[in-house]
Amino acid sequence: MTTFKSGRLYIIGAGFAGQTLAREIRNKGIYGEVVAFLDDDKEKIGRRIEDIPVLGPIRDVAKLFRLHPADEAIIAIPTASKEYLEEIYRILKSAGFERIRILPGISQIIDGDAHLIQTRSIDAQDLLGRTPVRVNLRQSLSYLRGKRVLVTGAGGSIGSELCRQLLSAGASRLYLFGHGENSIYQIDRELRLLQEEGVGEKAILVPIIGDLKDRDYMDWIMSQLKADVVFNTAAYKHVPMMEENPVAAIDNNLFGTENLIYASRKHGVKRFVHITTDKAVEPVSVYGVSKYLCEGLVLDAAKKNNGNKDISFMVVRFGNVLGSRGSIMPLFQKQIEKGGPVTITHPDMQRWFMTIPEACSLVLKAGGVGENSSLYLLDMGEPVKIQELAEQMIRFYGLIPNEDIDIQYIGLRSGERLDEKLWWEYEIPYPTDFERILKVEQSEEENVLKNININCIMDELKPICRFDPLQPEKYRNSKLLRDILKRYIPSYAKEGIKSKEYAELKQALR
Question: Same domain, yes or no, for 479 and 377?
């Protein structure tokens, strides 16, 4: 959340967003003085806007600054490309600015309606990856106006960003569901502060602490909420952690999703959007298997709608997001700040990346335009080598890779592979009318898993996750769980054969 020293402020960008910030700063009178706008637009340079001079070009005038410790720059160009943002950042750092803030991207700014409370310290993820697609969020969210919207996992990285963007949906109620009281408290508090500062519309916010694994509770709570739309982001996601706790992964992700689907169908949910991952494609980890099976559960539920066009169950799949909790970017940041080394599993490891705001904007868009029983894939662009990402982050801090900060290879861990796939061999992604949203069609002839009955798998897994007095020996038996998954999922079974090869590779890299 934004905190300002009382000093001199420079707003980078004299457009509508920058002007809105300048008016707010002047009206509140507690954040210091806006000294100038800095802009590269020749039409604006030399003018006074909001009685504030517009100076530029940015590269030239930045060299003239004599800064005070409290001076601060706010980048207010929500449409800026990654390349332009990186250039502005370098200029400001060279000019001596230590405090640089940024407005969120265009996906979070509705009709230029920027607010000071939305600004935050710029970080590496703002300068990495590709330029996000511009989504008309107000138009994309129109299907949610007046609706009751439930976000599960609302305290997580994806869930919390969905909630921020959903403030502008015109929903009547926004239910913030999660099992961690601290994370739900934080997103609830943040959203209320945003509302107080004029961000979005006045949806009623309802924080809910609960557990998807509790079937009776989910049945009861959904009967009370009467939600129209569900965005299911809740899951245990950390691959190595779930390899150490496979029963928890299946119990929470698979059986929790089953409970949510059951309660949603029973209590009148009209639109159910399930978030999934590229690790569900030819899964080699327990986490990936759990998400693959969840995809099947949602699509099976969609087939039970009996032609009712008012009910839609759909899946949205995408790869990694930059900066999510437990991901490599926060880890790299901490490693760099303590002086290194930055640890990478393998020099050839690569992943698809997307910023959290862009992913959430596209999820919300897909949730509105998506059709029942459909699987959508977000266009992730080109994969990024993890080593290149680490090197870029080190440079963001003004340091030199392998000189100031060492890079160390530690080898692949259980459940990991060098690269991920976005679709199976039997899946074909097709463009839709909506940029960066693909629809995935499945070829039944080539589907190697077409005969798998998810209900049968779950029947075998249930006594492992839920205590059965008639089968007490199965409870929390992780070896039995893995054996069952290997029997049904060929890619997971093959990974067991590769484990020796990975172990040898890990040893060679030490």
Answer: no
Whether 185 contacts 207, CB under 8 Å: yes
Asked if residue 227 and residue 187 are part of one domain, the reply reads yes
Q: Is the domain of 309 the same as that of 429?
A: yes
How far is residue 151's CA from residue 264's CA, in Å, rounded to a whole number? 12
> Helix, strand or coil for residue 13?
coil
- 458 and 436 both lie in a single domain: no
CATH number at 186 reads 3.40.50.720
| Rounded Cα–Cα distance for residues 302 and 313 (Å) | 5
Domain tally for the chain? 3
407 in any annotated domain: no
Are 72 and 172 found together in one domain? Answer: no
Per DSSP, helices labelled H in 226-346 are 239-244, 246-249, 256-266, 286-303, 328-337
Residues 103 and 152 placed together within one structural domain of the fold = no
Q: Residue ranges of the alpha helices (H) in 304-429?
A: 328-337, 356-369, 386-396
Q: Is residue 393 part of a domain?
A: no
Q: Give the global pTM.
A: 0.90
CB 456 within 8 A of CB 448: no
In a domain, residue 209? The reply is: yes
Do 476 and 435 lie in one domain? The reply is: no
Domain that holds residue 453: 449-503
In-domain check, residue 346: no
> In tens digits, what is the pLDDT along the chain, a chain of 510 residues?
455 555 789 999 999 889 999 999 888 876 778 999 999 999 999 999 989 999 999 999 988 887 777 789 999 998 888 889 999 999 999 998 989 999 876 555 555 567 888 888 888 878 876 777 777 777 889 999 999 999 999 999 999 999 999 998 999 999 999 999 999 999 999 999 999 988 888 899 999 999 999 999 999 999 999 999 999 999 999 999 999 999 999 999 999 999 999 999 999 999 999 999 999 999 999 999 999 999 999 999 999 887 788 899 999 999 998 878 777 888 999 999 999 999 999 999 999 888 888 899 999 999 999 999 999 999 998 999 999 999 999 999 889 999 999 999 999 888 999 999 999 999 999 999 999 999 999 887 777 677 889 999 999 999 999 999 999 999 999 999 999 999 999 999 875 434 444 445 445 544
Shared-domain flag, residues 106 and 178: no
Q: Which of the residues are catalytic?
A: 279
